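Students often ask why inverse folding is considered easier than folding. One informal answer: many sequences map to the same fold, so there is more than one right answer. In these notes we will look at a single instance of the problem. The structure comes first.
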C-alpha cells in the first residue's frame, strides 16, 4: 500500500513527496524523493586575473581597422603610423588610438629611428595567431572570408612573418619531409641527421639558431593552401639563406616574393621543387 503527502521546505512552499513502501508484513518504511534531498553544490569557474585575457585579445583583433594593421605587419616589416592609418582606412588620430591599444596588449612593438617611429608585430606568436585566424576565417561564411590583397603572386610565394609561405613554402616543406630532412607532427618538428648535413651544406649555421629561445622547428598551417609550411627558427634561417643567394626577393609594399630564374634553378637542383606550369607566368612576370 502506498501513501503520499507533502511538506514545506525552508518556508518556500516547495512540495516534497514522501512515499511509504509496504514491506509485506504490514509495516512501512518512509522514503524521501529527490526534491527532499539537499541540492548538489554547483561550482562555477570564472576567469581570474592570472588567466590569459582571451576575450580582451579577441576584441582587439576583431576590430576591422586593427585587424588590417596586424595583417599588413604579418610579413615582419616595420611601418609608420601614417602607413598603417592608410591600410586601416582611418584618420591618423584614430590610428594612433588603435596603435596605443595594440601596444598595451603587446601585439605590436615600437621602434624609434630619429624622428620617425616604426611599428611591427610584437612577436612571432602574434603572427602565428593572425595566420591561424585567417585559416579559420577562410572556412567560415563567405562574408567573413579574407580577400587577397594582391594578385596570384601572393599565393605563389609570400612571407609569413619571417619564413616562406604560399605554394613555394608548402612545396619546399613537402620536399624536406619526403627526403627525410625534417619530421613534422601536428604541432612540432625535428631535424634529422640527414637534415643536419643538408642544411649545413646549404649554408645554414645550426648552432647559432639552436642557441636562440624560439621554437626550433614546427609546422605552420598555410591559410591559402590549407597545408603546412615550415616555421620556427630553422625556417627563418632557411629563408634568410634563400634571400642571400638571390633565389627570392621582396616585392615592395607587398608580402609577395619574387622568385628569380636563379631561384627556380636552385630550388629544383637542391630539393627537386618545380612549380606547376600555371604558376610560371606569374613568376616570370615578377622578374
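Output (designed amino acids):
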Amino acid at each position: 500500500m502506498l501513501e503520499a503527502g507533502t511538506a514545506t521546505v525552508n518556508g518556500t512552499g516547495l512540495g516534497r513527496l514522501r512515499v511509504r513502501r509496504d514491506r509485506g508484513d504490514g509495516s512501512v518504511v518512509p522514503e524521501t524523493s529527490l526534491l527532499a534531498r539537499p541540492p548538489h553544490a554547483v561550482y562555477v569557474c570564472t576567469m581570474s586575473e592570472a588567466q590569459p585575457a582571451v576575450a580582451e585579445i579577441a576584441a582587439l583583433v576583431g576590430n576591422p581597422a586593427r585587424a588590417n594593421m596586424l595583417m599588413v605587419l604579418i610579413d615582419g616589416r616595420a611601418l609608420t603610423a601614417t602607413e598603417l592609418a592608410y591600410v586601416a582606412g582611418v584618420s591618423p588620430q584614430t590610428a594612433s588610438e588603435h596603435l596605443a591599444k595594440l601596444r598595451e596588449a603587446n601585439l605590436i612593438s615600437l621602434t624609434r629611428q630619429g624622428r620617425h617611429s616604426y611599428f611591427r608585430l610584437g612577436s612571432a606568436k602574434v603572427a602565428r595567431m593572425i595566420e591561424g585566424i585567417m585559416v579559420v576565417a577562410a572556412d567560415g561564411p563567405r562574408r567573413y572570408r579574407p580577400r587577397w590583397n594582391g594578385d596570384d603572386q601572393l599565393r605563389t610565394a609570400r612571407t609569413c612573418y619571417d619564413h616562406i609561405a604560399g605554394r613555394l613554402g608548402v612545396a619546399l616543406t613537402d620536399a624536406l619531409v619526403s627526403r627525410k630532412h625534417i619530421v613534422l607532427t601536428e604541432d612540432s618538428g625535428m631535424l634529422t641527421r640527414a637534415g643536419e648535413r643538408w642544411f649545413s651544406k646549404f649554408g645554414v649555421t645550426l648552432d647559432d639558431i639552436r642557441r636562440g629561445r624560439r621554437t626550433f622547428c614546427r609546422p605552420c598551417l598555410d591559410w591559402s593552401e590549407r597545408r603546412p609550411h615550415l616555421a620556427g627558427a630553422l625556417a627563418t634561417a632557411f629563408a634568410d639563406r634563400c634571400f642571400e643567394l638571390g633565389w627570392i626577393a621582396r616585392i615592395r609594399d607587398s608580402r609577395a616574393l619574387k622568385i628569380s630564374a636563379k631561384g627556380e634553378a636552385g630550388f629544383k637542383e637542391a630539393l627537386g621543387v618545380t612549380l606547376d606550369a600555371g604558376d610560371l607566368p606569374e613568376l616570370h612576370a615578377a622578374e
